[in-house]
Amino acid sequence: MTAIVINLRPTIELTDDEFYQFCQQNPDLRIETTATGALIVTPPAGGGTGKRNADLTTDVGLWNRQTALGVVFDSSTIFKLPNGANKSPDVAWVSYDRWNTLTLEQQERFPPISPDFVIELRSRTDDIEDLEAKMQEYMDNGVRLGWLIDPQAEQVKIYRQGQSVETLQSPLTLSGETVLPGFLLGLSRIFR
Question: What is the rounded CA–CA span in Å between residue 6 and residue 57?
Answer without folding.
Answer: 29
